[in-house]
Amino acid sequence: MKKPVSYFDNLEELVSFSYQNFGNSLQYYVREFKVDSPLGYCYKYSSPGVTIYNVVTSPIGKPHTDRRIKAHELGHITLGHLSGVHEELDSRVLWTINNDRANLIEGINKSLGIDYADKLLNRVIDDPQLNHSLHNIAMDFEVNQQILSSEDVEEMENDISEFLLSIDPLYQSLKNVDKDSLTEEQKKALEDIQKQMASSKIKLMLPERYHLSDGSPFPTDLTYPEYLILIIKNLSEFVKMLVSIKNGGSGDTSEVTEEQLKEALSGGDPGQGGSGGMTSLDDLLDACGMSPGQGNPGDKYKGCREDPNQSQSGKSFDHGSESRDEADKSREKGQISAKPGTGCGSSGGASGSLDASQGPKDPVTMAIDEVIRGFKSKVCSFVIKKDMTYLYNRGINRAVIAPVYHTKATVTTEPKIVYLIDVSGSMDSDLVSRILNTIAAKMKSIKKGLKYDVIAWSTQLCDHLKDIDPRKPVPRISIGGGTRMARGIKYFKDNYDKSCTLVLISDFEDYLDEWEQVTSEMTGYDLYGFCYGYRECTRKIKNFKIKNFTNDY
């Protein structure tokens, strides 16, 4: 429901009271609109004895929309988006990527039809502009639902588009002209207004226009930190949003076609002058007003803080704060980096990545590492909650109720890894023991209390060992008999839910058609097959991740 004018007036009065006193100063700046600057932005910085909150807006002559633009920026302040949480969130983003990297890469590549998802994930951490953009979208999701409404946003979009199209006579005269006949100056004028329209649409994004892998829209009741992690887990939706907006859409990711993705991301054959690969993504970012590789302007930002009118553009200022500056410094120093070998930050959370290519080369260990990473994402989670009374209750600041974000790590022992072991006569008992011992050691390193199960199977159930403590020796398993592992897979399906991970250890000398009949009905399960014997399994089995090893291992 569209909110009345009185709501925005009351919001401004409340925020002004809270942030205009008690060591805070809320300052408003109204500046004439320019094509290369946003319609509104806000930022925070410290000055001797006072914390400054600046809100900058450019009215477009639509009174109700002008109030909404101002309310949008005030919303970032009252929802705590300028509080000191950026570095902690970047560490959490890195942890999320590292602990489910293989699945994220596979999902992004498949969804977008590309082969460079690994590079895109690295840039989420290392590229300040891309990193800031994702943070900003997550913040805007919360503001556009909690402070504004869907109806407010839709009316704002119409008013802003109408305004942008009316202010540039050159655009009006050239928008339907063949671009090949334009001069460079004319092309630049068109690009500038199109980028401004795109950046305005991105600022007004609604969570219901983003979609999960099952096609359902993002929830509408989450906080900024929750939205940020959800965006990371569904990163292909960010790219689809850019494609939608570049093609004149609203950013609704469900409306983007495979043809549009291919055209936007292929960029033509690099050998024939096309861009291709990550360069195509750079072009897409630039077309939507996000010049790649640029972050906060550092000292230039500080020099223009007191008077935003001195700045040519406020895009890099948006949501700026010392917290964001510190996160950028950590990125520059490599303390938060997608590069290997950066260790842990002072918070105790992961602030660097581990590169398997720098570690053990043993294929068995590397395959188990992939299983464990996926499993850790199920049992280990970080919950960030907003506490409105934390500072007040502890006497830190009793002058104003200001939100603070807190992170809590939780571990659940409910999900399990289940090992379905082929115990037919052809199996190598030494290798099976080695794999189980390696997994037990790695599970023990995650958290005490985690346990795993083993199902020993030939043509039927031989043993079902439950709740094995990884701190104790792996139980002995007898080997011998025939092979009919499809029935064992079904037995797992009948006894465990999708929270559990299955690792099938076999030589794959079996009826693989029967396997696929069972696994084709197991969408949403994490299924791994460790194949070892005298030949590799080259067949693809639906919903199954197969790792090949020879009996030499």
Explain how this protein is built.
This protein is 44% helix and 14% strand. With 553 residues, it is of the alpha/beta class. The strands form 3 sheets. A 6-stranded mixed sheet has the order 8-7-6-9-10-11, with helices on both faces. A 3-stranded mixed sheet has the order 1-3-2, with helices on one face. Strand 2 and strand 3 form a beta hairpin. Helix 6 (128-146) packs across helix 10 (224-233). The longest helix is centred in the middle third of the chain and has 20 residues, at 184-203. 37% of the residues are buried.
Rounded to the nearest angstrom, the distance between the terminal CA atoms is 64 Å
Beta-strand content bin: 5-15%
The outline comes out as: elongated
Q: Mean of the pLDDT scores?
A: 77
Helix content: 40-55%
Question: How are the SSEs ordered, and which strands pair?
Answer:
Layout: H1 5-19, E1 24-30, E2 40-47, E3 50-57, H2 63-78, H3 86-99, H4 101-112, H5 117-126, H6 128-146, H7 150-167, H8 169-174, H9 184-203, H10 224-233, H11 236-246, H12 258-266, H13 277-287, H14 299-303, H15 322-333, H16 363-379, E4 380-387, H17 390-393, E5 404-411, E6 417-422, H18 429-446, E7 452-457, E8 461-468, H19 485-495, E9 501-506, H20 512-519, E10 526-533, E11 545-550
Parallel strand pairs: 1-3, 6-7, 6-9, 9-10, 10-11
Antiparallel strand pairs: 2-3, 4-5, 7-8
